[in-house]
Amino acid sequence: MSAIFNFQSLLTVILLLICTCAYIRALAPSVLDKNKTGILGIFWKCARIGERKSPYVACCCIIMAITILFSE
C-alpha cells in the first residue's frame, strides 16, 4: 500500500520531509532560501516548521518511532 493511502505512512513521510529539510537548511541555508515561492517553496516551509517547532517535531518523531517498532 502506498504512503498516500496509509495514514501512518503518510505521517512518517511528512515527518521525514520536515526533518530532512531542516537538516539541509542547517548545513547549507542558501540552497533552500533562494526558493521561497513556487513548488520548491514547500521545502523551505518544511525547513521553517522543523526549525520553529523542533520540540514538537522531535516528540512526534519519537512517538512515530515507538509506534513503528512495536506495531505488527
Automatic annotation (TrEMBL):
<feature type="transmembrane region" description="Helical">
    <location>
        <begin position="54"/>
        <end position="71"/>
    </location>
</feature>
<dbReference type="GO" id="GO:0000139">
    <property type="term" value="C:Golgi membrane"/>
</dbReference>
<dbReference type="InterPro" id="IPR051523">
    <property type="entry name" value="KISH_domain"/>
</dbReference>
<keyword id="KW-0812">Transmembrane</keyword>
<keyword id="KW-0732">Signal</keyword>
<dbReference type="Pfam" id="PF06842">
    <property type="entry name" value="DUF1242"/>
</dbReference>
<comment type="similarity">
    <text>Belongs to the KISH family.</text>
</comment>
<comment type="function">
    <text>Involved in the early part of the secretory pathway.</text>
</comment>
<dbReference type="InterPro" id="IPR009653">
    <property type="entry name" value="Ksh1"/>
</dbReference>
<keyword id="KW-1133">Transmembrane helix</keyword>
<protein>
    <recommendedName>
        <fullName>Protein kish</fullName>
    </recommendedName>
</protein>
<feature type="signal peptide">
    <location>
        <begin position="1"/>
        <end position="26"/>
    </location>
</feature>
<keyword id="KW-0333">Golgi apparatus</keyword>
<keyword id="KW-0472">Membrane</keyword>
